[in-house]
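Researcher: Next sequence.
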Amino acid sequence: MANRKTIKDIQSSKGSEKLAVLTAYDAQMAKMLEEAGIDMILVGDSLGNVVLGMETTLGVSVKDILRHTQAVTQAAKHTFVIADMPFGSYQESPEQAFRNASKFLSIGGAQAVKLEGGQTMATTVKKLTQSGIPVMGHVGLTPQYVHQLGGFAKQGKTEIAAKAILQDALALEAAGAFSLVIECTDHNLAEKITQELRIPTIGFGSGTACDGQVLVINDLLGL
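Model: Next structure:
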């Protein structure tokens, strides 16, 4: 079994090796993904949709993510695991974000957390990374903002909107994020962001130019 990838491994892959990321929510799937050699496992708040039957991810709690993260890390002992920070667990303040994010590492066994948002989250990302918590950013379509966005639709379709997403990406990198999910944007925008950033980008419905791809395991399996 290969050793778990480190932040350094993930960042050094940019421009040379595509990263493969899949979600997992239980020990059995986590073990299968580890045996398949997946680069990173995301314990996504998408569990609200595909496991708990919710219409959105907004009802997922810290307790939900923590329990599923424990299940995944107990089975995938050699794979880099990222815990998704659920809605309401980090938006209030950097201090709130640290209290919750630290649980995902110290109790859940994850190696990093992921949170949504751009420039407004930069201070929070900086607080977490300076406190020893690696952060994966997430721009473009951010499902926790579904009501503000007016639904699940492609983002960055206008020049102004595209520039705003690029600025979000740059702000997260400057704050210390080690990688960045780009969800549901135009291929050209995702490619530009990938070229502008020094950290790896992980595409989700944003074309093939990113440094890696992430999928919800249930979608991949057609479930």
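Model: The two ends are 28 Å apart (CA to CA). The CA atoms of residues 41 and 81 lie 5 Å apart.
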